[in-house]
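Changelog-linked ticket: flavin-adenine dinucleotide example.
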Amino acid sequence: MAQVSIHWFRRDLRLTDNTALHHAARASEQVIPVYILSTWKRRHDWTGPSRQAFLCGNLASLAKNLETINSRLILRAGAADEELEKLILETGATALYANRDPDPFGKAMEASVAAMCQKHEVELLSFKDVTLHGPEEVLNGEGKPYRVFTPYFRNWFSQEKATPLPTVKSLGPAAAKLKSLPLPTLQHWSLPPCTASTPPPGERAARERMKDFIFSGKVAAYADMRNTPSGRHSSCLSPDLRYGLIGIRELYQRCQKAAQGAKATVKASVETYLKELAWREFYMAVLHHWPEVLEMEFNPEFRSVPWDGKEQHYEAWKEGRTGFPIVDAGMRQLLATGWMHNRVRMIVSMFLTKDLHVHWRLGESWFMQQLVDGEIASNNGGWQWSAGTGADAAPYFRIQNPWTQTKRYDPEGEYIKQWVPELKDVPPEKFFQPSDAPLATGYPLPIVDHGQERERTLKRFKMAKGR
Ligand SMILES: Cc1cc2nc3c(=O)[nH]c(=O)nc-3n(C[C@H](O)[C@H](O)[C@H](O)COP(=O)(O)OP(=O)(O)OC[C@H]3O[C@@H](n4cnc5c(N)ncnc54)[C@H](O)[C@@H]3O)c2cc1C
């Protein structure tokens, strides 16, 4: 048994069903729980006030939860390898526990931490925790990664799933004398205040969201309702999975239990939900096997497609002022809450790339700056899907029409009226086609003609394919 070990919290900010923390607690007399804050200032292309504010709330809640088991969260700021090295020297820890991060940046840091541990003869114990199946566990018959989702899912679904781990009840004595930074606020990164109403942070709030989704009948109705953007019909657990406020094993097991003995429609609905969890792991696997997707199109055929959208169109899209009500509603929901419904994410991303011809990487970055659930792999996968350039992407010629999408998914205009209040008195049929006159005072006319831009996009993709 190690006398003193360190648990490096990363994207696993919880005490229940936490693989590395569970093992650290069992194998050590004292576990020092640590979180290392980043030190960039003012602006970041891949995050923003909403997600950082949610992180602050999650850290405050984690610190409290640790206090209830007589432990103490140690906060440091800087490069993780350097800060962990200092802590090892200060505490004499002989083991370092961590859950693996699937992102390239997290993996690179892990490699430096491993080298540092080796130098100090400290044992590094790292665990799979973020996913049910790691990228090397779901491979095709030739041992290669899947490029399309359906066979990936079949394989993923057929594999046995690990069961959840119990809540950690003790980490030994608190490291009372170790130096720790105060809990962070947005000032730590010199960020402006968060103006979005983000979800209540912390493990307990996340667990309530999970239970509400499963026990209130939402998971049973998920297959029917998940494409309706008004109201809350999906789980809204993406921010919780992003920060590991709930364990994926527990979520999976609870869903399975909800399906046990239930009628066929409920079983099918639960399976539809589990399929979405598999999309998350599919995109993480894509990013693991093809990290270049962060820089370029997954599909080499489309690397020469020109993206020459206008700056003012990109700005209108960001502000939710395009004159396409469904697009504007989505972009304003994003600004107001740091979250957007999946169906609408698909509509706004296809609109930016196929109607406005703005590079998908600009949309990807804006989403990362705004989303509370900003997840590098899912976001990149979603953007490349919509741009028609990704793994198992929408075929480039299937360009969604925002007007008909509105008729199908928001027929009463409820979603639009919630997020674009100046349109609250407009009859919903007006949202199904462009009109010549503004729909309301101050509301813009459509900034482009969908039919024309669609033709332009088709031409560009065909040319790129023919090259
Ligand atoms: C352009 C674009 C960008 C996206 N960016 C992100 C992102 O940064 N972070 C993120 O978590 N999801 C992203 N998604 C996927 C999806 O929109 C969200 O996961 C979903 O809307 C979250 O809401 P929910 O928790 O209610 O989802 P539910 O419908 O309840 O699904 C349950 C969980 O499954 C996962 N999931 C569902 N759909 C997808 C999907 N298409 N791809 C990957 N995982 C999925 C999520 O973890 C989600 O919480 C993006 C999709 C698109 C089209």
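Closing comment: Example verified and attached. The chain is about 45% helix and 5% strand. The domain at 300-466 is CATH 1.10.579.10 (DNA Cyclobutane Dipyrimidine Photolyase, subunit A; domain 3).
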